[in-house]
Design goal:
The structure is a homodimer. Chain A is α+β, with helices and mostly antiparallel strands and about 220 residues long. Chain A has one domain (about 5-190): NADH Oxidase (3-Layer(aba) Sandwich), CATH 3.40.109.10. Chain A has seven helices and five strands; from the N terminus they run H-H-E-H-H-H-E-H-E-H-E-E. The first copy, chain A, has a four-stranded antiparallel beta sheet, covered by helices on one side. Chain A is globular, with a radius of gyration of 19 Å. Chain A starts with 6 loop residues before the first helix and ends in a 15-residue tail after the last strand. The relative contact order of chain A is 0.21. The mean pLDDT of chain A is about 95. Chains A and B meet through helix 1, helix 2, strand 1, helix 6 and strand 5 of A and helix 1, helix 2, strand 1, helix 5 and strand 5 of B.
């Protein structure tokens, strides 16, 4: 067993990888990634996820053009003033690189879920289209990202497709019963995996009541 | 390194564990679980999660009473007719067991997120309170569940608190800026970990266009 598979090591080195090589991802590797997704928990084990693997040029071009347009539209102000030598600046640069190279990424994985009103929304308030149950899809999304890292694949979690999801339904034939929760571009990374940067857990943790601490476990910074 | 830590093994044996021993969970073990949570990705790496670890009797009793009430209220019809010898029946029985023993579970972990309108919701449509960004919190929730499994802890993902979240804010002092996304009851399992039951990934996968297949990878059952 390779140390690549140690779950804590995988988590601690699972950075968003946005610069990807065009080399294809073998089907048997992708199959392992998808199987990891289906291992996730879901409400009442209903497994309301569906995956759409997009590898053809027409599909990737269609998606990439819209994704790139909305990234520039949405982040125009931010990009004008950004300091590209800062961590946030480098992150923005990598995100824009991914956007403009989306059509060259070997696999675009659309993670979909059936639309369903959460039970906390009273029937009288159920107006318009229900969202998919994010809580039943995102655990699968995270399993997929972790499996990619364990298998040496670069990936990142994107949600900008929300700006043009209707177009995607029409082009890819996704039925109205389903929503697209996340899009994961997957390929072998051009760069190296590396440690992630996070605020330490105790700073994000409260004990018994909000704002209370417990040394070593909960030292909340509010 | 123990094989317990192999990421694919962990995923494949990560069942919801709803029968838990009252034995305490050591702080250093819980700290590892929370650190795993903070390794998750989040939009722009903003890490908008906060955790509330509830171990005191008053807090667990307050939460357990309401949780148990709503489980019975919400599933009254289902429970009346259920076949307890079926898989769904056994699952329902375990869920009701957890509900009525919630106050005896060693750790209740509230996974919270800051409220923020998703960018896909136009400003004119931003009415009422924004939900937390589920996509930025659920990957952390899944990391926490996987870490529990790797460390031999039983856990499950619950969302029934949505029915009485306002009460929780008042009792635990959770600020209005945050929402509670999921509650994870954690303890050492009374039963055994075991394989999960899932529909095979190829049945949930489409290739290039919805409904299209690719042998071995995508054999969609629609």
């Amino acid at each position: 067993m390779s140390t690549e598979n140690d779950i804590f090591e995988v988590m601690k080195t699972m950075r968003a990888m946005r610069r990807l090589k065009p080399d294809p991802v073998p089907d048997h590797v992708l199959a392992q990634v998808l199987e990891a997704g289906t291992c996730a928990p879901s409400g009442q084990n209903l497994q309301r996820w569906s995956f759409l693997v997009v590898e053809d040029q027409a599909g990737k071009k269609f998606f990439g053009e819209r994704y790139d347009y909305w990234m520039r539209e949405r982040f125009a102000d931010v990009l004008r003033d950004i300091d590209y030598s800062s961590a946030a600046g480098r992150q923005a640069k990598a995100a824009m690189h991914l956007a403009s190279h989306m059509h060259e990424v070997p696999v675009l994985l659309f993670c979909c879920g059936t639309r369903d009103w959460p039970f906390a929304v009273a029937p009288a308030e159920r107006v318009g289209r229900a969202p998919p149950s994010y809580g039943s899809i995102y655990p699968a999304v995270q399993n997929i990202l972790l499996a990619c890292r364990a298998l040496g694949l670069g990936a990142s979690l994107t949600t900008m497709h929300q700006m043009f999801e209707d177009d995607m339904h029409a082009f890819f034939g996704i039925p109205a019963t389903h929503g697209v929760v996340a899009v994961i571009p997957i390929g072998y990374p051009a760069g190296k995996f590396g440690p992630i940067t996070r605020e330490p857990a105790p700073h994000k943790t409260h004990f018994n009541r909000w704002g209370q601490g417990k040394p070593g476990l909960a030292e909340p910074m509010v």
